[in-house]
């Protein structure tokens, strides 16, 4: 049986079945090779980004009462968003449904229509805003890290 025949036979009766092709998962996509260690490393590098560097300053600006309260509030918001993303990973059945490999795939499968375009515009606007903010923050940091003359 060729790879094309095997990929065509992946979907039977509306349910996904494991593929026998080497390097292909049940959806006909390349098999993922990550482990718990690589996933943990990706999560840690995403969390310990530029936001962690300004966390102490932000808590200091808010004070001892509002700082930890806002941190707990943001933690709850992040938890809710993570649960929503996990629930949207597969469309239909949670075990055999179609995988949504990107955020836009999940929006398309659950909302559809013009909401996909609106979500895409908001996603890219957020990305642009974060890029501008990081550029400004890094340029300010470079100003203060410039060597000073010894005069």
UniProtKB/TrEMBL annotation:
<dbReference type="GO" id="GO:0006865">
    <property type="term" value="P:amino acid transport"/>
</dbReference>
<feature type="transmembrane region" description="Helical">
    <location>
        <begin position="65"/>
        <end position="86"/>
    </location>
</feature>
<keyword id="KW-0029">Amino-acid transport</keyword>
<feature type="domain" description="Amino acid transporter transmembrane">
    <location>
        <begin position="32"/>
        <end position="143"/>
    </location>
</feature>
<keyword id="KW-0813">Transport</keyword>
<protein>
    <recommendedName>
        <fullName>Amino acid transporter transmembrane domain-containing protein</fullName>
    </recommendedName>
</protein>
<keyword id="KW-1133">Transmembrane helix</keyword>
<dbReference type="Pfam" id="PF01490">
    <property type="entry name" value="Aa_trans"/>
</dbReference>
<keyword id="KW-0812">Transmembrane</keyword>
<dbReference type="GO" id="GO:0005886">
    <property type="term" value="C:plasma membrane"/>
</dbReference>
<feature type="transmembrane region" description="Helical">
    <location>
        <begin position="124"/>
        <end position="144"/>
    </location>
</feature>
<keyword id="KW-0472">Membrane</keyword>
<feature type="transmembrane region" description="Helical">
    <location>
        <begin position="39"/>
        <end position="59"/>
    </location>
</feature>
<dbReference type="InterPro" id="IPR013057">
    <property type="entry name" value="AA_transpt_TM"/>
</dbReference>
